[in-house]
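Progress note, sequence design subtask.
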């Protein structure tokens, strides 16, 4: 099968990646956090740097500071903690819906890697007061083929808001 318009990735693989991201969103929205963590490679870097507003040409993303900078171990601990009675930021748990769009797939540096950029919209509501959060941004991933499965080897999350109105980031992006 031919690759799609200069991406170096064939159509069957692109469809597989789309299905992968739909499944990932389903796991998170269904609160299946332990299964979600299994989608990550052991050496994963999971980061969300801070966005600021500056005059050009200064960069608007500060990689040295972040909302979080996780490893597989810390993601595992965060997922397990959500099942306890001490996860106060998520008690009661949020109701979430993730929309993953604009999936752009490119060949990676090796035959087993892909570079994928996705846009996301996270709708999150808690309690019964009608309040909700919208968190929007882009995820920059490196996926690695391991046997028949894809693993997320790196994820960098760029949140569009520099000042977020949400009270906490107790959910995964």
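Output:
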């Amino acid at each position: 099968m031919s690759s799609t318009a200069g991406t170096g990735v064939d159509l069957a693989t692109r469809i597989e990646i789309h299905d992968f991201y739909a499944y990932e969103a389903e796991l998170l929205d269904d609160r299946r956090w332990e299964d979600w963590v299994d989608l990550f490679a052991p050496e994963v870097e999971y980061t969300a740097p801070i966005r600021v507003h500056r005059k050009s040409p200064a960069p608007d993303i500060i990689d040295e500071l972040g909302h979080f900078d996780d490893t597989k171990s810390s993601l595992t601990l965060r997922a397990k903690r959500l099942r306890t009675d001490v996860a106060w930021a998520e008690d009661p748990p949020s109701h979430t819906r993730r929309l993953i769009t604009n999936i752009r797939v490119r060949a990676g540096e090796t035959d087993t890697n892909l570079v994928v950029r996705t846009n996301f919209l996270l709708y999150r509501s808690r309690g019964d007061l009608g309040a909700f959060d919208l968190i929007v941004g882009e995820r920059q991933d490196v996926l690695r083929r391991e046997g028949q499965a894809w693993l997320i080897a790196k994820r960098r999350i760029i949140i569009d808001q520099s000042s977020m109105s949400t009270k906490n980031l107790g959910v995964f992006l």
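The mean pLDDT is 90. Work on this subtask will continue into the next period as scheduled.
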